[in-house]
Amino acid sequence: MEVILADYLGFCYGVKRAIHMARSSAQPGPARTLGPIIHNPQMVSRLAAEGVEAVNSLADAPEDGTVIIRSHGVGPQVYEEAKERDLQMVDATCPHVKKAQMAAHQLSQDGFSVVIVGEKKHPEVKSIFEWSGRNAFVVETEEEAAQIAPCDKLGIVAQTTFSGDKFQSIVACLLNKSNDIHIIRTICTATDQRQKAAIDLAGKVDMMLVIGGKNSANTTRLAQLCAEKTMTHHLETASELQDEWFHNIKKIGITAGASTPDWIIKEVYQKCQRK
User: Fold this and answer.
1) Which structural domain, as residue segments, surrounds residue 47?
2) Widest CA span in the chain
3) Nearest partner of 38 among 99, 123, 119, judged by Cα
4) pLDDT tens digit sequence for 243-266
5) Considering only CA atoms, which of 168, 215, 212 is closest in space to residue 194?
6) What is the C-alpha to C-alpha distance for residues 162 and 125, in angstroms, rounded to an integer?
7) Cβ atoms within 10 Å, residue 150
């Protein structure tokens, strides 16, 4: 049985940066991330064991410790509250997310009606919405885009991990909404690379394994894209592999979300090789 890894998989720059910043903040005092720093339960658990636990709000943060802003970012009011309380803060917001936040903010300041293309419940999208002054529409589908009312000036940004093809399709539904449209494609390069590599590999194998948190938007999207090409399973760890998946399978492809640690990818890869 042949096991093939996608050309691009696993930790992206923003995730590596956030993990490094979290670990660097663990000493000497208590460090807490404001929400899970990334969407991978196993990595979040490992950080907690190293002394960097997640809290749900600033109210739960220790006064004498460090508050770490998660990679998905937060709204401006969180920075203001932390400053008022004189909390020591480390900002691990992914630079690509920061770019999307600032783009939405500037568009709103310039008088544009802002549309955020992304998942309404995702923390990154919520943070971008906050930076728009809570004056934006969030759309996930072409149908929702069609419901946007015409306006004088329309600005469009995207969740950094959104599907590039889906973004393009939704934007096409918005082009008749205004004569003054400013499109800022804030999907990051790592997302594009991982999606294209996964789709390419999925077309060459009998089965795809997509590794990453079930709460990870970019991993779930990889699984959806691969499933359009071949039989696909989304799993978090090697313990979820099932023998029946491998019946009559000659070629297996493996990819992983941008928040999936190398050690988990290695465990899945090695277990597949023994099948």
Assistant:
1) 13-94
2) 62
3) 123
4) 999 999 999 999 999 999 999 999
5) 212
6) 10
7) 10
Would you state the structure tokens that stand for residue 270, as one six-digit string?
């090695």
For residues 194 and 6, the answer to whether their CB atoms sit within 8 Å is yes
Closest CA to 55 of 66, 42, 46, 43: 66
Give the helix ranges, DSSP H, for the chain: 13-24, 41-49, 76-84, 95-109, 123-131, 142-146, 164-174, 189-202, 217-227, 262-273
Is 124 a residue of the active site? yes
Record the tokens describing residue 50, joined without a space: 């190293």
How many Cα atoms occupy the beta-carbon half-sphere of 43 within 13 Å?
Answer: 29
In terms of domains, do 180 and 135 share one? yes
Q: Tally the domains of the chain.
A: 3
The catalytic position among 119, 124, 140, 236 is: 124
Q: Quick check: 90 and 66 in contact, CB under 8 A?
A: yes
Read off the pLDDT of residues 59-116 as tens digits, 9 standing for 90 and up: 998 888 899 999 999 999 999 999 999 999 999 999 999 999 999 999 999 999 999 9
Examine the domain organization and report whether 104 and 183 are in the same domain.
Answer: yes
Cis amide bond preceding 28, omega within 30:
yes
